[in-house]
Amino acid sequence: MEISKFDAALGATVSGIQLGQAQDGDIETIKQALDDNLVLVLHNQTMTDDELVATSTKFGKLDIPGVNPKGKPFHAEHPEINVISNIMVDGQPAGNLGAGEAVWHADMTYKDDPPRAAVLYALEIPPAGGSTYFANMYAAYEALPDSLKKAIDGKTAIHDASHNSAGILRKGYEEITDVRETPGARHALARTNPINGKRALFLGRRPRSYVPGLTVAESDALLDQLWAHATQEQFVYRHDWKVGDVLIWGNLEVLHRRDPFDASARRRMHRTQIGSYWTEAA
Question: In this predicted structure, what is the pLDDT of residue 209?
Fold first, then answer.
């Protein structure tokens, strides 16, 4: 197995291994590479869903994703797998997020204890569009002006639970007009990794976010400034997908977004999520 760093703010390729056949020692090496690089890319992978779940479990306990609009898992045999797809089957979506843009976000931060990492396996890819971008929140925090570090010290933000990253209202929620009433977890704007002691911005998703204790105008101004800083090109890696790619990334240290693509094309991916290790340490 070989780890090759990208010439970017984050990311590395892992070659010489089939992830579905990885042994415990291989997993430990990959875990360290993930800590060091935040995003790992493995090309030309072949895995069954059984292997995806079994291998993902070696990284930690899996989080169960949300259900489909009918209240059932998107993957009947493996409810641990979240299907990311625009494909329709019998008039119903076979997966989440459709073909539109998915704005900058981290996954499931509307929960008090969001997942620490994700594994995403590409099964069908459109001929154009659908690229995914990742931004390094350690580097973004480190590069913050001292005035902004002081401004966010001790402050939290509400992470919207009512919509997904494609802007679609989740079942059981109603649209709100006042961001101060946004449902969802409250997380510190900068958090400390309890394993390595490093601090990272923790922003979740910009739409419907709010910083309690500030006026709406003050909150919007602060959040807009943080988001403009955190998503600068200097912190970003872009991934153009191929069938058989597997990406693993640190959900609590990295933001990601997706380009839209032609809705008549097919895109299908299977994702697992590894449970959190974060604390609210200031």
Answer: 93
Distance (Å) of CA 197 to CA 14, 97, 154, 192, 193: 25, 34, 17, 6, 5
**pLDDT per position as a tens digit, 110-132:** 999 999 999 999 999 999 999 99
**Does this model's pTM top 0.90?**
yes
What CATH fold (topology level) applies to the domain 2-274? Double-stranded beta-helix (3.60.130)
pLDDT tens by residue, 218-242: 999 999 999 999 999 999 999 999 9
CA pseudo-torsion sign 27, 28, 32, 35 = positive
Total Cβ atoms within 10 A of residue 177? 5
Q: Which two tokens stand for residue 3?
A: 């780890």
Each domain of the chain, given as residue ranges in start order, spans: 2-274
Q: How sure is the predictor about 99, in pLDDT bands with cuts at 50, 70 and 90?
A: very high
In this structure, what is the dihedral angle of CA atoms 75, 79, 81, 84, given to the nearest 10 degrees?
A: 50
pLDDT for the residue 278:
47
CA-CA distances (angstroms) from residue 191 to 31, 58, 157, 187? 21, 25, 12, 8
